[in-house]
Amino acid sequence: MSASSDDNQDNTEYDLLDELQSLRERMRDDLPKSATAFGIYFVSILVAVLCITGAYLIQIPNYFPANTVVTVKKGQSIQEVARHLQKRRVITSPFVFRLLVEKWNKSDTVVAGEYYFQKPRSVFAVARRLSEGAFGLVPHAVTIPEGATSFQIADLLEDKLGSKNFDAQEFLHHARPLEGYLFPDTYSFLPNTDERDIVMTMQQNFHEQIDTIREEVQSFGKPLRDIVIMASLLEKEARTTKSRRIISGILWKRLRMDMRLQVDAVFTYINGKSTFDLTYDDLRNDSPYNTYRYQGLPAGPIANPGLDSLKAAIHPTAYIPFLICREICIMQRISNNTRQTSDYIYTKKYACI
Question: DSSP alpha helices (H): ranges in the chain?
Fold first, then answer.
């Protein structure tokens, strides 16, 4: 339903007020010439009261639940629907709502379903929409950037879908176990989309993307879980395809040599700190994601990688001797004086790329 049609329906309330005013004038004209001034005054007061009461009954309620989905269940009577709408502050008068539905529908039934109200609407517009089944659900485009965590995705979805429709905690309950497998992309979700369905949609997209490189993944010879974890590290450590593939080669070689990966990016996932903020105590953090303390890959993905990082994880660039020397020198300096070398790690770690 267009905005102009809604506005036309809202104007119907003015027609009602005009009718009340006309009634007042007809009643005044119909009075016998011998009517007293008191009678005219009484009728005027009565009509005024009717006008005020009518205006109250058709006005938009305070705290109308804008940007909210209201559900009308199948099998509900018109009385139950009207009471539910009044309880949700969508309408002021169940009586007026029922009258309008019967006027437009020629019956006392409405169309069951979920109705999205982006902004406050009059009882006329509400009754018309429920009579016609104009649900008003418009998909929202949500872009999930590469490298976003499940927490960041929850914030984006809440911002786009609205906190009244989207339960961030419910989303995280389903999303956190699938960290790394929620593919970053632009999605189109209805305001009433279930949180679990959103997670399943993103996970399905991940598997569809993996299918495009399935043979390469199998040829690489590593478990998909390890590849996804590596890709998440690459996503947070580098910005270009070239640098991701070089870092991929470095990290896979460290794993083969039973060396600690010592990747700074894990700390944004552990405690939200960047390279510049790290202290010696941070490097001793007992998190299973801490690649300075524990050998091997972190306990799980630290973000949701895009396709480029997934490809970089299975197409690493071979080590160059100069890179090996540079990496060993940096690791020695780290063990001697972490605080002073943190900036050096950030600017020089991959200076030879």
Answer: 3-10, 12-30, 37-58, 78-87, 94-105, 123-132, 150-161, 168-175, 195-211, 214-220, 224-237, 241-256, 266-270, 280-283, 307-314, 321-336, 338-348
Contact 228, 140 (CB under 8 A): no
Structural domains of the chain ordered from first start = 3-132 (no CATH), 140-211 (3.30.1490), 223-348 (no CATH)
3-state secondary structure of 94: helix
Rounded Cα gap, residues 218 and 21, in angstroms: 80
Is pLDDT larger for residue 274 or for residue 140? Answer: 140
What's the pTM?
A: 0.66
| Closest listed residue to residue 352, CA positions, set 248, 276, 243, 238 | 243
- Beta bridge partners of residue 164, listed in sequence order: none
Among 132-136, 170-174, 262-266, 326-330, which is the least confidently predicted range?
326-330
